[in-house]
Every structure is written in C-alpha cells, then in structure tokens.
Design a protein that fits this description.
By secondary structure, the chain is mainly alpha-helical. The chain has 6 helices and 2 strands. The protein has a two-stranded antiparallel sheet. α3 (24-43) runs parallel beside α6 (106-124) and α4 (49-56) packs antiparallel against α5 (72-98). The model has no long low-confidence stretch (mean pLDDT 86).
Length: 130
Amino acid sequence: MNALADRASGAGLSAAPYVRSEHYASAVFESVKAVVNRVKSMTGLDSDGVPLMNQAFSVQNPRLVLGGAGTTTERNMQAGYRELFVGAVQAIRNTSAHEPLGVMEVNEAFELLGLASLLMRLLDGAAPSS
C-alpha cells in the first residue's frame, strides 16, 4: 500500500489521502481530474474533457507540444500522446463523474495511477507551441 500511496502523491497528484483510506476509485478519479485541471491551467483553454485534450494536443495547431512537431515521427508521437490524454478523460474521468464510483481493486488503482502519473510527467516536459 505504501508504493501505491507514493505513486498517488507523486507527480502532483492529490490522491494519496484516498489511497490511504482505501478509496481507490476516488483516488484514480481525483488523479485524472488533476491532469485535466493542469492542462487547463497550462493552456488557458476553457473547454473540458475530450474537446480540451483534442485542442490542447492537436497535431495541426497544438497549445502544448509533447516532444516536437517538426518530423513525421514527432507528429505521430504528439497524436499518440493526445490519444492517451483523451482516453484517460473518456474512459476514467468521464465515467467516474457520471456514474457512482464502484469498488476498485488495489492493482487496478496502481495501474491507473501510473497512467495519471505518466500524463503528469509528460506535462512536465510539454512546451507551449510557438
């Protein structure tokens, strides 16, 4: 459980109290919500959810660049990372926001918190588009 609490508190995630109290679904929800809020803060965009992620990480006109945008490989990386952000919002945050939180096993929480941590780390290295 300590490793899970460490992952939940790392990378700017605010889920550690939920992990310590064994409210794993809430921990994951709050972590992905923190990712969304950070993207909003970094971009100044007012949109939310999937539209926010698509706009923030657009390949054609990104607000945030994740690893460059000049080569085909860099554009492919931008598109792939955008899909990770979109997927986290659509599959985790949106479903948690609109349905009652169910019981989540500790292993699933560990994996999903790892995803949220990865997204936060990607944001650490993101550059505003020029």
